[in-house]
C-alpha cells in the first residue's frame, strides 16, 4: 500500500497519455496545443508495465487523461490491457468529448468503467467561446449515448468561470434533473500560463455551495476512500452535483492520487516544483522495482499545495499532466 508520511493512502493513479489536444480552452491552452512530444509518449507496453508496478503497490483505479487521451490511436488497446492488470478494479477516462459519440461503444467494449466529460457551458455560443470548438450538441448526444449504453459512471466536469458560467447554475441543475450523472464544478486553478485569466475569472465554489444549500441540496457523506470532491444530492433530481474547491482549507487532507505524465514523469502533486522520471524502470518487467521507487519518492510528498500563495510549481497548464 502506497503511504505518505501524513498517513494518506494512494490507491488512484492519473495517467496522461499525451500532452497534445485538439481544443483550445481559454483557461488551459488558449493558443491551442504546440505539443512537440508526441513521438516520445509512453508506448502501450510501457503504460502496461507502469500500471503493473502501481497495481502491485496497491493502486486500484486508473484514470487515463491528457491533453486529450482520445487522440491516441491505440486507446482501446491501452484500455483493455490496463483493465486486465491484476489488482486494477476501475479504469476511468477524462475527455473533452470530441470522439465520445463515435467511440464510446468501443471504449466500453474494451473495458472502460467510467467517463468524465468536460462541459464548461450548456450554451452553444458560450461553449464555443471557451473551448474554440462548436461541438456542444454532438458532445451532449455522446453523453446521452454513454448512459444508454450502460456506462456505469458518467460525470461532467465544469470549470467555474465567472464570466462564462458563474451565473448558470439553474441551467446545469436542469441538465441533471433526469440524468443519473454527477456534474462537478471545479474551481479554476492558477497555473504558470494563466495568471491574468485566473485573476479575472476565478470564482469560489463557495458561491455555488451556498446556492445549492438554499435550494434544498444536501451534502452526501464522504466514503472512506473518496477524494477531495464534496457531493450534493436532492430528492427531485436523478443526478448529483459535486464541488472541487482546491483553495479551500484542508483540501489536500484527502488526497489519494498520484500522477504520471505521458513522458513517464511522476508528479507527487499537481503543483509540484519537481518531477521524477521512472521511464527507465518500464522496460525490465519488474513491477516490484517500480512499486519500490514510487513508495520511496512518496515520502517527499508535501502536506499540501501552496496555490493560495500562487505557487504553481512546474505546471504551465494542466494539459501537461492531465489535471
Ligand atoms: N482534455 C481532457 C478534458 O478537457 O477533459 C482531459 C485533460 S484536462 C487537463 C482535465 C480537466 O482539467 C478538465 O476537466 C479541464 O476542464 C480541467 N482543467 C484544465 N485546466 C484547468 C484549470 N486551470 N483549473 C481547473 N481545471 C482545469
Ligand atoms: Fe484540451 Fe482539456 Fe486543456 Fe481543454 S482542458 S485545452 S480539452 S487539455
Q: How would you describe this structure to a colleague?
A:
With 323 residues, the protein is of the alpha/beta class. The protein has a single domain (12-320), classed as Aldolase class I (TIM Barrel). Helices cover 28% and strands 17% of the residues. It is built from 9 helices and 12 strands. Strands 7-8-9-6-5-4-3-2-1-10-11-12 form a 12-stranded mixed beta sheet. Helix 1 packs parallel to helix 2 (75-83) and helix 3 (100-110) packs parallel to helix 5. The chain starts with 11 loop residues before the first strand and ends in a 25-residue tail after the last helix. The model has no long low-confidence stretch (mean pLDDT 95). S-adenosylmethionine is lined by residues 21, 27-28, 65-66, 68, 94-96, 118, 157, 159, 186, 188-189, 191, 194, 318-319, 322-323.
In short:
The chain has helices at residues 44-56, 75-83, 100-110, 124-131, 136-148, 169-177, 195-201, 206-214, 287-298; strands at 12-16, 61-65, 90-95, 114-118, 153-160, 182-187, 218-219, 230-233, 240-244, 257-260, 265-267, 276-277.
CATH structural architecture = Alpha-Beta Barrel
Helix tally equals 9
- Would you identify the regions where 5 or more consecutive residues have pLDDT less than 50? none
Structural domain count: 1
**Annotation, overall tally of beta strands:** 12
Helix-residue proportion: 25-40%
Q: Strand pairing plus helix content: what structural class?
A: alpha/beta
Using the alpha-carbon principal axes, give the shape.
globular
**N-to-C order of helices and strands:** EHEHEHEHHEHEHHEEEEEEH
Q: What is the CATH topology?
A: TIM Barrel
User: Strand order, biggest sheet?
Assistant: 7-8-9-6-5-4-3-2-1-10-11-12
Which ligands are bound? Answer: S-adenosylmethionine, iron/sulfur cluster
Quote the distance from N terminus to C terminus. Answer: 24 Å
- Determine Rg (CA atoms, Å): 19 Å
* Average pLDDT score: 95
**CATH superfamily (homologous) name:** Aldolase class I
